[in-house]
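Renewal narrative, Specific Aim 1. Our central claim is that a sequence can be written position by position from structural information alone. The example that follows is taken directly from our test logs and has not been curated for this report. It begins with the structure tokens describing the chain, in the order in which they were read.
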């Protein structure tokens, strides 16, 4: 696997391009915006999404999808809600057997499909893997130590992908549980918004720790109901990603919750952002999926009610704190 295609030139796609090149691979990165492509190729920087990083000359940007998927493996790094349309556009150029490594974290609105289900529908001949875990793009790009889950049902293919992408500072840990890796990556964004709200309201560290712990229980229930494994949620793509995203202002989801807790309006916060805050778009889909599976997820439901159902924030918090006492195992 010498040539790696990357679909999506946001901060995370750019960081993955840098680390793939650091692993010795040739990298072709597709971007929707011609100006992003032109800037990368001319200046060796992605001024829009990751301006502080110099990009090696063997990282090439393109607007040509056929060029980007002419690779030994392709990383799909578009926002979750755009993955279906992007995969559909890629399908005419995709060579059978080339693996699709899903790096988007979310659940599709409307269909409540996981990203693996979306890719299976649009790229049925592509073997799949999921790359998910506690990662801030700028730290990965800088080569700071990072561990991440790479989930692939085909253990042999998974090992090849680990060898292709892994470096001493970027360490993929192999799993065969794609569902667990996906659910962890999607739900943690919603929970991070809740933790940011707690910080913004000044409720203290005890409350944030409680939200992380009870949120992990919600995440695990949903993964098990979808066929995932409980131990996966105790790993990097579950607990690890949740701890990182729910406790740092670097996180777009946590920082959005923080501003909501401080009294700002959602529309105003989103209007200031170029990058996508995935938890906003996944919250409703997570809650809908849980309802279909008869899974109780009160924290995610409270976040969804504030983001998408015009519920006053204080009212949603009051309802959470008024829930009946239960055994911790439930």
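The sequence written for that structure reads:
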């Amino acid at each position: 696997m010498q040539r790696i295609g990357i679909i999506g030139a946001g901060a995370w796609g750019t960081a993955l391009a840098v680390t793939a090149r650091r692993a010795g691979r040739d990298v072709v990165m597709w971007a929707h915006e011609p100006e992003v492509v032109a800037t990368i190729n001319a200046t060796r920087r992605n001024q829009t999404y990751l301006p502080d990083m110099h990009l090696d000359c063997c990282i090439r940007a393109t607007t040509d999808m056929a060029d980007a998927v002419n690779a030994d493996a392709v990383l799909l790094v578009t926002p979750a809600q755009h993955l279906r349309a992007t995969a559909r556009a890629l399908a005419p150029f995709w060579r059978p057997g080339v693996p699709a490594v899903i790096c988007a974290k979310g659940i599709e609105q409307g269909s409540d499909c996981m990203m693996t289900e979306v890719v299976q529908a649009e790229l049925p001949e592509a073997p799949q893997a999921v790359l998910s875990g506690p990662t801030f793009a700028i730290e990965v790009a800088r080569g700071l130590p990072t561990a991440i889950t790479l989930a692939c049902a085909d253990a042999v293919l998974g090992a090849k992908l680990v060898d292709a992408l892994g470096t001493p500072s970027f360490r993929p840990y192999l799993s065969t549980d794609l569902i667990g890796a996906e659910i962890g990556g999607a739900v943690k964004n919603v929970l991070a918004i809740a933790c940011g709200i707690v910080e913004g309201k000044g409720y203290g560290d005890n409350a944030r720790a409680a939200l992380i712990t009870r949120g992990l229980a919600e995440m695990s229930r949903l993964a098990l109901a979808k066929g995932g494994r409980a131990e996966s949620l105790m790993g990097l793509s579950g607990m690890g990603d949740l701890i990182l995203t729910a406790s740092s202002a670097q996180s777009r989801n946590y920082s959005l919750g923080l501003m909501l807790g401080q009294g700002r309006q959602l529309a105003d916060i989103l209007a200031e952002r170029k990058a996508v805050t995935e938890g906003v778009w996944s919250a409703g889909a997570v809650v809908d999926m849980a309802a279909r599976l008869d899974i109780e997820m009160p924290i995610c439901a409270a976040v969804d009610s504030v983001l998408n159902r015009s519920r006053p924030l204080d009212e949603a918090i009051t309802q959470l704190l008024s829930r009946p006492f239960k055994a911790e195992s439930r």
